[in-house]
């Protein structure tokens, strides 16, 4: 990897740096690397958005939020393992979501 010096304030090295960028883009486009990387970025972006949405759905659920202090205390006191806590909270969340879907099926 090369290092390049450029200064917008002194207006030096900018043309050379843009030429390096242009050549990089040209070579990576021609080889298919540019598209491969961009495709990977797009899929990562989608996955991140799904993760964030599911995280928000879970932690914004009133029952999950209500159970969380008790479950955390149970973990810290050694009453349940983190794995058991996750199974319990996800179970409550899944049951509530499934019930909501059933109501939607019968009301539409």
Salient structural properties:
single chain; about 110 residues; mainly alpha; 2 domains; 4 helices; about 0% strand; elongated
Q: Could you characterize what this model shows?
A:
It is a single chain. The chain is mostly helical and 108 residues long. It folds into two domains: 1-49, no CATH class; 61-108. Helix content is 81%, strand content 0%. It has four helices and no strands. α3 packs antiparallel against α4. It starts with 13 loop residues before the first helix and ends with a helix.
Helix residue percentage? over 70%
The number of distinct β-strands equals: 0
Structural class: mainly alpha
Low-pLDDT sequence parts: none
Main β-sheet: number of strands, strand sense, barrel status?
A: none
Principal-axes shape call: elongated
Overview in brief:
The chain has 108 residues and is mostly helical. 81% of the residues lie in helices and 0% in strands.
Strand and helix map with partners:
Blueprint: H1 14-31, H2 33-60, H3 62-76, H4 82-107
Helix pairs in contact: 3-4
